[in-house]
Amino acid sequence: MRSPLLLTLAAALSCTGCRSPESHDSLDSVPVCQECFDAVTAAHQQHPATSADEHRVIKEYTFPCCNAEMAVYIEGGIHMVRCGGCVKDGVAWNACHPVEMNTK
């Protein structure tokens, strides 16, 4: 006979992969402009992180959609985007979603 606690623990451990850090399904997803979303998603695909300890800037430039400085970088092995217009504190690529921004 198996212990209910053991079965619960086994089920919980098996679900740790269900909400991986690479998932875009976060309930706390941050809205960013389409251009920033595209830039960080492309960087994730074209410049994979080599380790969980990696820290580097991939690209910095001014984006016309937000008319602000934007940076795509890797922090702690996670691709991040920071934009003076839509996401000033920076956000992980998998914790944001694109929205249409009003540029006026």
Core attributes:
4-stranded antiparallel sheet; two-stranded parallel ribbon; globular; alpha+beta; 104 residues
Report on the structure:
The chain has a domain at 29-99. 23% of the residues lie in helices and 36% in strands. The protein is built from two helices and six strands. The N and C termini lie far apart (66 Å).
Give a topology summary:
Layout: H1 4-14, E1 30-33, H2 34-46, E2 55-63, E3 68-75, E4 78-83, E5 87-92, E6 96-99
Parallel strand pairs: 1-6
Antiparallel strand pairs: 2-3, 3-4, 4-5
Could you give a short description of this structure?
The protein is of the alpha+beta class. It is built from two helices and six strands.
Give the tally of β-strands: 6
Rg, nearest Å? 17 Å
Element pattern in H and E? HEHEEEEE
Spatial shape? globular
Helical proportion, percent range: 10-25%
Q: List the uncertain runs.
A: 4-26
What is the first-to-last residue Cα distance?
66 Å
User: What composes the largest sheet?
Assistant: 4 strands, antiparallel
Main β-sheet, spatial strand arrangement:
2-3-4-5
Class by alpha and beta content: alpha+beta
Q: Report the total helices.
A: 2
Average pLDDT level: 75
What share of residues are in beta strands? 35-45%
